[in-house]
Amino acid sequence: MKDDKIWTITEVNSVVKTVLEGALAAFWMKAEIGTMTVHTSGHVYMVLKDEKSQLKAVIWKGAQAVKTLKLATGSELEVFGNITVYEPRGEYQFTIKDIRPLGLGDLQRKFEEIKNRLQKEGFFDSSRKKKIPMLPRKIGVITSPTGAAIQDFLNIINRRFPDINIQIYPSAVQGIGAEKELIKGLRFFNRIDSKVDVLVLMRGGGSMEDLWPFNDETLAMEIAASKIPVISAVGHEIDFTISDFVADLRVPTPSAAAELVIAKQDELTEKIKALFSKLRTAVQFFIERKKRMLEKFSGSYVFKDPLRIIFEKQQTIDEMRTKLKHITAMKYERDNTKLQSLISKLQTLNPMAVLGRGYSILINKATNSIIASPDIKIGSLVTAILKEGKIELEVKETSTTQEGR
Predict the structure, then answer these.
(1) Is 0.85 surpassed by the pTM of this model?
(2) pLDDT, tens digit, 9 for 90 and up, residues 142-173
(3) CATH 3.40.50.2300 segments of the chain
(4) Superfamily of domain 133-263
(5) 209-214 — which CB contacts under 8 Å span 24+ positions?
């Protein structure tokens, strides 16, 4: 039909890429390497296959991973990635993002389960980790006494500090039951009389199966319960175990543990010399400063006539005593004058003073009240209070003044 769209190959490949890459999320896949090419760019191109089919695959910058895992034609493995389309050739391929030898999948999943569980329970928290001593007097090592790891460790220790005390607890570091021997070693050193300042849990590198005893959950709890700081020196720098996460310190190799756990003797000697020099300079400066102060004060009258200070203080006390006496006298005079004034006012208001001038107070005996007006019955008995006594009277007659009318 004339209206039908005419597609280009590029457009077709683009649509296929969009549909195919959007249809599948990333996933794990089991396969065998049919062919493999490591390009000079560092990219790795493979053909993965099973019994019936094959699929092209690529690992971007995967040369180092192939070398580390020792992959070759015929290797069985598990890969994680997603389907992608290479548009220029219209080919789809599997882009690998993660890779592991076949058989490690179950161990890896178990490792992640243990790690996540212990992390949630707080075994990896930095707050519970103990400080590693700078210069331990005695180091406890739990490892295989015949392995290369302990030899490297001892060689470095002897070069740095040949007189350090090291006690080795022999233990299997791989295989069935190795974790139980490692736990016994931790318990041995955590006795009250061990006097070990730091523990090193050690072994060299190996496969995940070889390192698996150090992923044991019971061992992790024993490390966390240790009263002595624990350094985990297991495997190579790329290897990680549960012991690394729960230990107080993780180092990448046993050699690194030796370099970290003990400083070089000559370095410590130089540090001590430098500190001693600083201390001596500080003491000399302190003495000189105090000497200058002494010279400054030696010319003072305090040293020439020390009693002068006492006499001056006594003079000050005498002056204060005289001043206090004067203030007290003035206050007494002022208060006495005020008191006499109040006495004079009281005497003026005293009714007895009025009676002394010939006046009297009349009390109605019937009502026991003061008589202030002549409004009283004839014949009523009245008591007249005088300055020097009383007179009993009887009312015979009453009258009012002109003002009272």
Answers:
(1) no
(2) 999 988 888 888 888 887 777 788 899 999 99
(3) 133-263
(4) Response regulator (3.40.50.2300)
(5) 209/107, 209/174, 210/174, 211/174, 211/235, 211/239, 211/241, 212/107, 212/174, 213/172, 213/173, 213/174, 213/175, 213/178, 213/179, 213/182, 214/173, 214/179, 214/182, 214/241, 214/242, 214/243, 214/244
